[in-house]
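Entry for the shared binder. Reason: the reviewer on the internal report wants the predicted structure included alongside the sequence.
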Amino acid sequence: MGGRARLILYAVAASGILALAIVIGVVVLGGGSSGSEKAGKAIVAAGCQYKHYPAQARSPHYTTLKPTPKPSWNSFPPSSGRHYFQWVLWGDYTDPVPLIKEVHNLEHGGMIIHYGNRVSKDDIAKIDAFWQDDPTAMLVSPLPQLGNKISMTAWTNWAECTHFNQKAFDAFRSAFRYHGPESSVFPKSSLQPGQ
């Protein structure tokens, strides 16, 4: 191989390495999170709170619903962490569902909406309608301890509102649903109500 051909080969290889380094840099330094940042700003602008939490260890899975010691999550309701080995069937529940099971749904890429025992019937009806509009990978469940608050969680993302706000809920669902650590293993077709 001549000197000129070798130079061209080295230049092509170097440009490929440089392109790969740029892509990695953008992902690692947060360039890929602009959708999350935009959603967080939209949620806050709608009068709600939003926070991204560091991911907690997911395993080993619990084999009992009441482990000792209890799970230690970094948000309430939890947005990541250890959980029960079986997930909750996707749906809109009228009775509380164990948080230790729901975290498994987040791992699959789901979104969970909780509402407290002092949330108005009107807001609960709006939550139910929101779920019915697009229920894939969504779980709704009362969580009495929230009082007058409504929470939304997805893997490492948490939001809380004092009333149902369509813009905040749309922004959260669009940005964070289908983004759990196992979402590539569980396609949307396996995240339907009752599955």
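Summary line for the report: Confidence is low (pLDDT under 50) at residues 9-32.
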